[in-house]
Specification:
The complex is a heterodimer of chains A (about 550) and B (about 240). Chain A is of the alpha+beta class. Helix content of chain A is about 35%, strand content about 30%. Chain B is rod-shaped.
């Protein structure tokens, strides 16, 4: 019996918790809002206290590292990020903008979809979409690396400047790359990339010894043009032979398809691994196509061809081609592995990122809607308790209208279980001390955010309001009179529950006869009241139903 | 938070509690023009009371009540007076006319509107001294009278004090009918009132015995003292048998 009860309780708790957690899942966004990247405007106002999905058509959801939201504010006409003051683990006091929340994206969408939790009202926020370096910036950074590897510091500095500019957001002129100077980057290069580029630029690491003879090249051209089809690109091999460029081709310093272009345009050196990889890829394709052609010739039973008085064995020629292709492939693989390590090192460093900045707010655009979110009309019943002339408590029940003034904008259609009571992970501002689960030792770590400054948390302020009410009708007790114009005033705190209902208690102002028989004027006295009320919109719904039923 | 709520409740309760005003905050200074008055039914006493100057315009009426005598304005023992400012003082006034009954007159004054909390009444006493007769005046309805009880003459005696005003109730007189020789005329008094009332009068109806026409009968009225003894205060008149 006890086991069954325990199971039922556990099931209930898990169900409730499960639903709660599930409800906080970003896929349960209440609305979709489109963000136009060109105008930085949304198609409809961003709601507060409601989860939503921000759709940015022009941005890809791929290669996203993180999406962070920061609270922003306007100061002297400038939009700036809100800064937090905190203490780092080394004891230093620091002030910086800390991310408010880490947002999730939809991995199954081609376009970027960012899921937002319910946000606080009247806040401005910036969204920073953090990518690894895009190809343009990445290539510029490779150029920096190559120039450093070449020891061309002057041009490397210029190249870094170009790289940093490429990471700047065009509108906000902000960059998510926190390495802002060449000197700072040089430190990163020295510690991480030096050995890699040393290997890349070392010729001994590559195979580049084979080449074709002029007769072999002619044999390939003649035989394949006759037996397969005209070998239009055959001239590339001959040009390579004439200028003795086989080593450059095999190292990837030159693209064979661009062999007729001026050297200064197409020739690179060993330090430019990214360009060499492209060249090697092109060269491998070329050699593949040549081998296919010669294989067609051989497959037709032609094993040799007579060129300039010499019999050229096509099988030997094919073997030479095969050896050169293998060299190309080996060199390509070697370079690709090095580049992979370089890319990983760059991507691993949180300082070398690229970002797109979005701006949003949950600020009411006009006073009417701002007021509509703060002031709500209620109707209900109240019981005023006041001391009578004979010093005994007098109960005066009355109907009343009330205005609830909230201390923050309220979306009265939201339910409180949409808001989290506690965040996971917890709020972190600075030094974060946690116990290492493996050895149980306290571990200190400076963590910057999230501080959840813009995220709605379940709090009393979503329910607490100042109730200002006026009673309806005259008071039957002759010792008392309404406070003003046949109404008595009720002022006190109110608590909203179940969205539409409210309880309130506070002070009531009304008039009471004087104890002096010579004074007829009633004096204002303070009493207490307790009231229950219903939101007027809720009553309006009931009224609509009853009007249909009793038409 | 809990303390704040408790303090707030106390503040509300205390702020709504009220102080019961004392009599001084309502009525003060009940004044009587004289502490003693003759119980002659004609003498008057002025009474005044001061009301709080904070009184509302429609609450400035007070009710004077007396245990004896009447208020001249109302003609009864109660009088509602509206207070008016005199030299910056809110004053309600009344004039009490004494009765003819000696004793202590209790005068009280209270606001017209009652308070559910307290009774606001000021009282004062006036000694009503007896109005002692010093003279009596007899008046007949006719100086001629028929013999053998054929008709009646109304005899009225009015007693006056030294001020010429009425005397108090309860002064006794003695009526006598005499022939000029000094012997009793043996006439008959009917409905004789030998004791003074509110109007300070005594009297009755007199009819004569059988006498010859022209016989004179003396009607004499003597004021008696508290012991029933004759005083020197008396008056007489002569009636003549005329048929």
């Amino acid at each position: 019996m006890k086991k069954t009860l325990a199971f039922n309780i556990s099931f209930f708790i898990l169900s409730v918790c499960g639903n709660f957690c599930y409800a906080q899942n970003p896929f349960y966004s209440e609305s979709l809002i489109k963000y136009d990247l060109t105008t930085h405007k949304t198609d409809k106002p961003i709601p507060y206290d409601r989860s939503f999905t921000l759709v940015i058509d022009k941005l890809s959801s791929k290669n996203i590292i993180a999406v962070h939201a920061y609270q922003a504010k306007f100061k002297k006409g400038n939009r700036i990020l809100v800064e937090n003051s905190f203490r780092d683990c080394d004891g230093t006091r620091d002030t910086a903008a800390i991310k408010d929340v880490e947002l999730k994206t939809n991995p199954y969408s081609d376009t970027l979809q960012i899921f937002f939790p319910p946000l606080k009202p009247n806040i401005d926020f910036d969204v920073k979409i953090i990518y690894n370096l895009q190809s343009k910036s990445r290539n510029l950074l490779f150029k920096v690396n190559s120039l450093i590897s070449e020891s061309d510091t002057t041009n490397a500095q210029k190249a870094f400047s170009d790289f940093f500019k490429s990471t700047l957001d065009a509108l906000s002129n902000e960059s998510y790359c926190s390495i802002t100077s060449f000197a700072e980057y040089r430190i990163f290069y020295n510690s991480t990339l030096t050995s890699l580029y040393a290997d890349i630029s070392n010729p001994a690491k590559y195979n580049a010894s084979d080449s074709l003879s002029e007769n072999q090249i002619t044999a390939i051209d003649v035989s394949t043009s006759q037996q397969v089809y005209d070998f239009k690109d055959g001239a590339y091999l001959l040009e390579v032979y004439k200028r003795n460029l086989f080593v450059q081709i095999l190292l990837g310093n030159r693209d064979i398809s661009k062999v007729f272009l001026p050297d200064e345009e197409v020739v690179t050196n060993l330090h430019y691994a990214d360009i060499r990889l492209q060249n090697l890829e092109s060269n491998i394709k070329y050699f593949d196509s040549v081998m296919k052609r010669i294989d067609r010739v051989i497959s037709k039973g032609i094993s040799a061809i007579y060129v300039r008085g010499t019999n050229i064995d096509l099988n030997i020629t094919r073997t030479t081609l095969q050896t050169m292709r293998t060299c190309l492939k080996k060199n390509y693989i070697y370079l690709a592995e090095k580049m992979k390590v370089i890319n990983t090192s760059i991507d691993k460093d949180p300082r070398i990122k690229q970002g797109v900045f979005l701006a949003g707010n949950t600020v009411s655009t006009d006073l009417k809607s701002a007021g509509g979110n703060l002031l709500f009309l209620d109707a209900g019943i109240t019981n005023i308790i006041v001391s009578g002339l004979n010093n005994k408590a007098v109960n005066i029940p009355r109907l009343y209208w009330g205005i609830s003034i909230y201390f923050r904008p309220i979306d009265k259609n939201t339910r409180q279980n949409r808001f989290k009571r506690n965040f996971d992970p917890k709020e972190y501002y600075g030094c974060h001390i946690k116990i290492d689960s493996s050895n149980g030792i306290l571990k200190r770590d400076t963590t910057y955010g999230p501080d959840y400054g813009i995220v709605t948390k379940r709090s009393i302020w979503q329910h607490l309001a100042l109730n200002v009410g006026i009673t309806i009708g005259s008071i039957p007790n002759k010792d008392f009179e309404n406070f003003y114009n046949n109404t008595s005033l009720l002022i006190g705190p109110a608590y909203r529950f179940r969205r539409a209902f409210k309880v309130s208690a506070g002070i009531a102002l009304l008039k009471r006869s004087s104890t002096n028989p010579l004074i007829s004027e009633k004096k204002v006295v303070v009493g207490g009241y307790f009231s229950t009320s219903v939101d007027i919109d809720f009553i309006q719904g009931i009224k609509d139903i009853t009007s249909i039923l009793f038409k | 938070m809990r303390k704040i709520i408790i303090i707030a409740i106390y503040l509300i309760l205390f702020s709504s509690c009220k102080k019961v005003p004392s009599i001084d905050e309502v009525l003060t200074d009940l004044k009587i023009s004289q502490s003693e008055v003759l119980a002659d039914g004609q003498s008057t006493v002025s009474i005044s009371v001061v009301l709080s100057d904070k009184s509302s315009t429609d609450r400035r009426s007070v009710i004077f009540t007396t245990s004896s005598g009447i208020f001249t304005s109302s003609g009864s023992n109660k009088y509602t007076s509206k207070a008016e400012f005199e030299n910056g003082i809110l004053l309600a006034k009344a004039t009490l006319r004494s009765s003819t009954e000696p004793g202590t007159i209790k005068v009280s004054v209270k606001p017209e509107f009652d308070s559910p909390l307290n009774e606001y009444i000021l009282t004062a006493s006036i000694i009503a001294k007896p109005s002692v007769p010093v003279s009596i005046k007899l008046e007949p309805s006719s100086f001629g009278i028929a013999s053998n009880f054929l008709n009646e003459v109304q005899i009225t005696g009015i007693l006056k004090n030294s001020d010429g005003k009425f005397v108090s109730k309860g002064n006794n007189v003695l009526f006598e009918n005499l022939l000029l020789s000094g012997i009793s005329a043996n006439g008959h008094f009917r409905n004789l009132q030998p004791t003074t009332s509110d109007s300070s009068k005594v009297g009755g109806y007199y009819s004569a015995n059988l006498y010859p026409i022209g016989t004179k009968i003396k009607i004499k009225c003597t004021v008696l003292d508290s012991n029933g003894q004759r005083t020197i205060i008396s008056d007489s008149l002569l009636l003549t048998i005329n048929q």
